[in-house]
Amino acid sequence: MTVKQLSMPELVDACLELAVPGVGLWREPVAAYGVRATAKLVRDAGLAVTTLCRGGFLTATDPDGRAAALDDNRRAVEEAAALGTDTLVLVCGGLPAGSRDLRGARERIADALAELGPYAESHGVRLAIEALHPMYAADRCVVSTLAQALDLAERFPAHQVGVTVDTYHVWWDDSAPRQIARAGAGGRIHAFQLADWTTPLPAGVLDGRGQIGDGAIDMREWKGYVDAAGYTGPIEVELFNEGLWARDGRQVLAETAARFAEHVNPHGSAVGGPGDAR
Amino acid sequence: MTVKQLSMPELVDACLELAVPGVGLWREPVAAYGVRATAKLVRDAGLAVTTLCRGGFLTATDPDGRAAALDDNRRAVEEAAALGTDTLVLVCGGLPAGSRDLRGARERIADALAELGPYAESHGVRLAIEALHPMYAADRCVVSTLAQALDLAERFPAHQVGVTVDTYHVWWDDSAPRQIARAGAGGRIHAFQLADWTTPLPAGVLDGRGQIGDGAIDMREWKGYVDAAGYTGPIEVELFNEGLWARDGRQVLAETAARFAEHVNPHGSAVGGPGDAR
Fold first, then answer.
1. Mutate to test the interface with B, among A59, A99, A101, A102 (most CBs of B within 10 A)
2. Phi and psi (nearest 5°) for B76?
3. Does the keyword Heme apply (chains A, B) (predicted)?
């Protein structure tokens, strides 16, 4: 998503050129290029698919809406498996129109996970609940903190359900470091994503994620927390930013790799040494 | 602020007409009308000043900036006392430019409160730390949860420092109800404010607070939490909303009183019975 202006082959070429060892993919561009074609493209390039984004939106109250959401999530699991990633990131969904019941919405997510967890496991895929910033609680994700995400995940086996730690969503939360430790102890850090916090936020607050190093978040501090929690998986940089999308995608990817080297991994290679990707 | 399009005398008239028993004032319109003139106006009308907004912005690192902030907060305390309110709401401040140190900023707030608390007490004024929504953590307030606000407040006597509970800022937080209970047990709920959460958020996310009943927040639920915590003080409706500001202020105030009756206090009078204002 950081460089959605690139076609799938351009993305793969740019990753190879910059020695970026893996890429997190989103379902829409994968569908546009074709799941099998994408899988072959990345496999032939030796590029890891770190995660697939995203499943979720599991808070509907009406039976048809719930059935459609479960169907869609099963397809997402299948796509993840086809792409060769073991992790499907979940954005769990906001409040249904007119509802004010956060607790009820969170319980419906748990109900859905009970169905989707075993299905994912049977495909070799883990679900990774992403705690989204509280500013998305109404319309996008009623899971607003890592504590809430873990409260949900821990009802299920860790190889079925874990969490996504994204700096953009949790950086303000002084309890997040101990929740990362809790997640690590349970083997539930299934994804780790970086974006920086820059202000002012744009209207709708979706596409204002800052380039690494441009904002208020100490990336090295958060990498330290997941390191200390035993996380050895990939680190994704996921920026939704109109300004970055308007630029040349290869330049943006090169800049992102350079920022990663400067702000996250100063003593490693440009995009992380061994252990930073699988 | 909900009806900032009204002049101070228009505001007082409109409150009397609607039997609104009290009003929370902001420093800028008070200064424009004059502190003494405002104090006389509301006193002669028999209208309570529920709180003064706002002090705060206590996170500067440079000595001049810190000294200026403390001076300004002492003036705010004096203004609150002159207006006859016992509560000064604090918006504590964001990160200084270029800083990524949330913890350090929070500690500087504590340092400032150690100076301002006794000064406020000597004027019969209590400081009320407002936990602001995490989307303001970088540029407005590094105190993002009631738990953090109470961690700060509890370093000082309750008659010096408490908290402001504002539904807009805390509604997403599943730990807020128990923090309200904690605040009530300590006699530290110094202000209670209502605004509804509506989406999409506007650019800059400052002026998108929804009219009561228009959004995702169950107002009665939150009133229940402060009631259960023993809170008997006033309930303020504080809406920053370009749409409301563009309308006739008296109409907006009447609508707000009606929404309050419908969504907050269905069995009381239009704007709350005895005990809802002091």
1. A102
2. -65, -40
3. no
